[in-house]
Amino acid sequence: MVELGAGRDGPRAITVTADESGVRVTLIGEIDMTDRPALDGALQDVLSRPPAAVTVDLTLLTFLGSSGMEFLARLYDSIHAEGHTVTLLNPSAMVLRSLDTTGMLDWFIVEEQR
User: In the chain, how many domains are there?
Assistant: First the structure.
């Protein structure tokens, strides 16, 4: 887990874990341009593992800036090139709107498990 410090709405963090079902990236709190190095590290962590499907848990995400959107695009490109999928778990309406506006929404599987 990479702790990013406290944001306006509470804690912020990025975690990468893996099990037999694939890799899970969890984004917590506000993810903005200051988090680019941590997002780069998370992407490298994902790509250093054997190719697998990836789930990005957005349940506790309160803000996703352009660096976060770029992270999702880079993650998708890398995982899709290996023949696997990226699932977004519990994205907010704000994230869905941003993905739709940029034409990225169709790239991902979207799951709601609240």
Answer: 1
**Which residues have a Cβ under 8 Å from the Cβ of 50 and sit 6 or more positions away?**
none
Q: What Rg value do the Cα atoms of the chain yield, rounded?
A: 13
Q: How far apart are CA 12 and CA 47, in angstroms?
A: 22
Of 23, 102, 92, 36, the residue nearest 63 (C-alpha) = 92
Task: Say which residue the tokens 């874990």 belong to.
Answer: 17
Residue 13 sits in a domain whose CATH number is 3.30.750.24
- pTM assigned to the model: 0.89
C-beta separation of 80 from 46 below 8 A: no
User: Which helix (H) or strand (E) covers residue 18, if one does?
Assistant: strand 10-19
Q: What is the pLDDT of residue 41?
A: 92
Domain that holds residue 46: 2-111
Report the pLDDT value the prediction gives residue 9, as an integer from 0 to 100: 59
What is the crossing angle of helices 66-81 and 93-101, to 10°?
70
